[in-house]
Amino acid sequence: MLFADKTHLLLLLFMAGVANGTLVGCGKTSTNSFAIKVAKAQLWNEASFRWQQVTEETPDAAFAHNNLGVAYEASGKIDQAILSYQKAVELEPNNKHYRYNYRRCRSIHKDRSRQNRDDIQPNTEQSTSRPDELEIDEIHP
Q1: How distant, in Å, are the alpha carbons of 14, 49, 61, 74, 138 from that of 43?
Q2: Mean pLDDT per 10-residue section of the chain, whose length is 141 residues
Q3: How far apart, in Å, are the Cα atoms of 111 and each of 14, 78, 103, 116, 122?
């Protein structure tokens, strides 16, 4: 498992306020709730799959794009994470949590690129983010 190590790591699930507060007409509230549950269990591929469903059903759901970015990042899919975070920020530019995730992930990507350019042995971990740094938006059950 990606974040499994000898110490107990906790996933900080951060409740980020969003402008609209509901998934009007989405019909994906149970999918989002399930995605949050599997993310808490660090089942990132399943969480990615579920949040992808929500983003396809409701493309303007910024929280789903942010959460999809969290799942991608935790899975080591940094390029996909950046795109998802970027979409969340585009949809809700004033959400500081989405902006934080986007900036932090881009920074990780730049560090890796620099490391590879400098011909240094790349980090074998898939993600350098700690689970308690990843901010899932749980406001939409």
Answers
A1: 18, 10, 22, 10, 16
A2: 32 29 50 91 95 94 95 94 97 96 88 63 53 65 48
A3: 25, 12, 12, 9, 10
Q: What is the pTM of this model?
A: 0.67
| Structure token digits, residue 60 | 């303007």
Which region, left, alpha or beta, applies to residue 21 given φ > 0 means left and ψ of -120 to 50 means alpha?
Answer: left
Report CA dihedral (70, 48, 77, 20) to the nearest 10 degrees: -40
CA 105 to CA 99: how far, in whole Å?
10
Place of tokens 């990606």: 2
Domains, in order of start, for the chain: 29-133 (1.25.40.10)
